[in-house]
């Protein structure tokens, strides 16, 4: 149902490197680059993560309560993505752990621009 989600960033070069490196193991890469706007995806027909410098040229401001949740294949992959994000310059916003017993395992970070991400797996 979701085609893409857009996150505002200050530095396109840094953001493309961050998301390209972070999601490479999931088969994702920058699939379209329009200068101030780029799309990261695992392939045609798959959901995309768009990163952009705001059109109005004002600073991007992460929304309060806004978060993008990215799927993982296992709890181990949640842990790996969380650590990789930290290694790439993200900050921890909630370490990996079981959030809902037997239902939801997740970890949270803020990217270098303050956008909140969740890595999760059901189970």
UniProtKB/TrEMBL annotation:
Source organism superkingdom: Bacteria
MF GO annotations: lyase activity
Statement: the UniProt record of this protein carries the keyword Lyase: yes
Gene3D superfamilies: 2,3-Dihydroxybiphenyl 1,2-Dioxygenase, domain 1 (3.10.180.10)
InterPro entries for the chain: Glyas_Bleomycin-R_OHBP_Dase, Glyas_Fos-R_dOase_dom, VOC_core
PROSITE patterns: VOC (PS51819)
Keywords: Lyase
Name recorded for this polypeptide: Putative lactoylglutathione lyase
Organism: Sulfitobacter mediterraneus
């Amino acid at each position: 149902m979701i085609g893409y989600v857009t996150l505002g960033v200050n530095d396109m070069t840094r953001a493309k490197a961050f998301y390209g490196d972070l999601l490479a193991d999931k088969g994702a890469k920058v699939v379209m680059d329009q200068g101030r706007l780029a799309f990261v995806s695992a392939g045609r027909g798959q959901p995309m993560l768009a990163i952009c410098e705001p059109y109005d040229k004002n600073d991007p401001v992460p929304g309060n309560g806004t978060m993008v949740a990215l799927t993982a294949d296992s709890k181990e992959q949640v842990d790996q993505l969380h650590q990789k994000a930290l290694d790439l310059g993200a900050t921890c916003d909630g370490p990996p752990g079981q959030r809902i017993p037997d239902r939801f395992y997740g970890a949270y970070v803020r990217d270098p621009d303050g956008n909140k991400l969740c890595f999760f797996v059901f189970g």
